[in-house]
Design goal:
Isopropylmalate Dehydrogenase, 18% strand, 2 domains, single chain, globular, alpha/beta, 339 residues
């Protein structure tokens, strides 16, 4: 059963985890954290009644500790500290329900507010179902855009990481036909600069090497297959080089990810969602991490969706959440050392 958290503990990073869609595998993998020895103060932002019901279904014997607004305790295997958000007690694994959309967004809001006020050192997010949220009448494009708006309409950059591969996106959740109009020299420049800054500040790479994919096949083939590569993307690369950054491109996307092309590259900038992410997920699906750049807070996420068909079965893969939590802790510790 639940009990209150005590308050006097050493300063470990405080990581807020939002499990996401309650009908999906988010609660399953959040509960899986209770088995792990995690060097942080982990706070699950969720409905404790929903978590307790899912734990019973999965046969997980977990002690739920209610966060009381003070400093949560260091994570201890067999327990989960939960910041209560009501609204999903009746969730059924595998059954999507628009009535839970408000609850899902409320969890994100609580996590964002806590991070902005310094109560959390980082946020780690489980998968949400964008269709359910939108069907409930709540405009929602994705986690990345939501947190950017909560942080004051800053411009986010989505980066995914798997093994030694880092891929960042100039545009994120857009219909394919809207991508060319959304790409500008300013936006490509901003993305390159955000990636370079993250590689320096968060990953300790003093002189980052970045390659940039073109938009069109063969990077436009000198204008014969599209003008955007030469007219829009190339000037951004030239500007980055003028600032002293090591940037190559625009490169044809079909060869930018070959082992030879990646041998001397720290990150690849791609122009749209399905240009870079299929490659990254082919390399590391189930263990990749989504990292949002350009925010005043640290936010990592799993690389997969809600997998509603697997919810409540005990077969969900924990790998991506484990990697996302580890990266959140690593970056939070780095920020603590820097301050």
């Amino acid at each position: 059963m639940s009990k209150s958290a005590s308050t006097n503990h050493e300063r470990l990073p405080a990581i807020a985890l939002t499990p996401g869609e309650p009908a999906g595998i988010g609660p399953d993998i959040a509960l899986r954290l209770a088995r792990e020895a995690i060097p942080a103060r982990v706070v699950i932002v969720a409905d404790p009644a929903m978590l307790e019901a899912r734990a019973r279904l999965l046969g997980e014997h977990i002690e739920i500790i209610l966060a009381d607004g003070n400093v949560p305790p260091p994570h201890r295997p067999g327990t989960l500290c939960v910041l209560p958000v009501a609204g999903a007690a009746n969730a059924v694994p595998g059954v999507l329900d628009v009535r839970h959309a408000e609850y899902v967004v409320k969890c994100l809001s609580e996590a964002a507010d806590g991070a902005l006020k310094g109560r959390f050192d980082a946020i780690c997010t489980g998968p949400v179902h964008k269709g359910v949220i939108n069907d409930a009448g709540i405009p929602f494009t994705g986690h990345t855009e939501y947190f950017a708006a909560r942080c004051g309409d800053v411009r986010p950059v989505m980066m995914l990481l798997a093994k030694n591969l880092r891929v960042a996106l100039v545009t994120t959740h857009l219909p394919l036909r809207a991508v060319p109009d959304a790409i500008s020299t300013t936006l490509v420049s901003y993305t390159i600069e955000a990636v370079a800054r993250a590689l320096r500040d968060w990953f300790g790479i003093a002189a980052p090497r970045i390659s940039v994919c073109g938009l069109n096949p063969h990077a436009g083939e000198g204008g014969h297959l599209g003008l955007e590569d030469d007219a829009v993307i190339a000037p951004a690369i030239a500007g980055a080089r003028a600032q002293g950054l090591h940037v190559t491109g625009p490169l044809p996307a079909d060869t930018a990810f070959t082992p030879h092309a990646l041998a001397n590259v720290d990150a690849v900038v791609t122009q749209y969602h399905d240009q870079g992410l299929p490659v990254l997920k082919a390399v590391g699906f189930g263990h990749a991490v989504n990292l949002t750049l350009g925010l005043p807070i640290i936010r990592t996420s799993v690389d997969h969706g809600t997998a509603v068909d697997l919810a409540g079965r005990g077969t969900a893969d924990f790998g991506s959440l484990g990697a996302a939590m580890a990266l959140a802790i690593q970056l939070a510790r780095g920020r603590q050392r820097a301050t």
